[in-house]
Amino acid sequence: MTIQRFGTTARYSDIVIHNGTAWIVEVPATEGADAATQTREILDNLDRLLAQAGSGRERLLSATIYLTDMADYDAMNGVWDAWLPAGTAPSRACVQVAGLAHSGWRVEIAVMAAVRGAD
To answer: Is pLDDT of 89 > 70?
Structure first.
């Protein structure tokens, strides 16, 4: 089985595809912004990366959402719920972490999605 990588650096790849599944992790563009803004930035980037992978938000299989403060849970969910098409919710975990790679990040999201044509 071939493993495809896109946007690869020495440390990470933007997208990894294997066996009909795409793995993507996204972080916000704006450090210090509120959780809703950071979530919106992440989901906008996920749309772009999912399309590049031959997938889409309606094909999400799993999501793990990392928050630095659970007080941001409702704000993040407000953006998430509006973004996700009805009836397509993936399995999901949302966890509070002590911190993310940059102190101004409040949200980080990791997803797995089915790639079109691999079903």
So the answer is: yes
